[in-house]
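User: Design a sequence. Structure:
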């Protein structure tokens, strides 16, 4: 973790137009690796504090021009934060429109596109984790209808795989 400058990482996360998307994606992948591989959660949270990084991640979801591959890695990073600390939930809920943006990705999923499906499945994981602390926020954002519609639309075979993935992850 000493190799990563958190200020640069945060700056790259906040990029988002044209060629800058590549830098944003690199920053997202780096953040995911830091969160996933950290052997000390407290040190990781000191380096990449949820109070600054989670709002930046949520803002990526609020960017309607963000491509699915960027959003999928963003959702993965949010999931890693939530896996480590349920307290991160309030930081996500505190970003106006973030939960609704996550829900909306389930509405526009392209089932024949692998990246779009992966994004939708990651959004379901994020919403599931948020529901453990702030189910009302997900409900108010229309999350229940979005998740149920997504589950209905993906078909029985994919439903089983999605459910199996959640049970294995939990």
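Assistant: Done.
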């Amino acid at each position: 973790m000493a190799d990563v400058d958190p200020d640069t990482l945060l700056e790259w996360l906040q990029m988002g137009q044209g060629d800058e998307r590549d830098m944003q994606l690199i920053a997202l992948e780096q953040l995911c690796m830091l969160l996933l591989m950290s052997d000390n959660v407290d040190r990781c949270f000191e380096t990449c504090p949820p109070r600054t990084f989670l709002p930046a991640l949520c803002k990526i979801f609020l960017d309607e021009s963000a491509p699915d591959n960027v959003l999928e890695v963003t959702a993965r990073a949010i999931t890693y934060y939530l896996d480590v600390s349920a307290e991160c939930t309030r930081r996500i809920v505190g970003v106006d429109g973030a939960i609704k943006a996550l829900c909306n990705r389930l509405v526009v999923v392209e089932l024949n596109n692998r990246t779009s499906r992966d994004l939708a499945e990651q959004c379901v994981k994020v919403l599931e984790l948020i529901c453990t602390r702030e189910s009302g926020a997900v409900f108010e954002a229309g999350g229940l209808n979005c998740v149920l519609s997504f589950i209905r639309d993906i078909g029985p075979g994919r439903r089983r795989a999605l459910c199996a993935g959640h049970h294995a992850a939990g």
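The first helix runs from residue 6 to 13. The chain has a mean pLDDT of 87.
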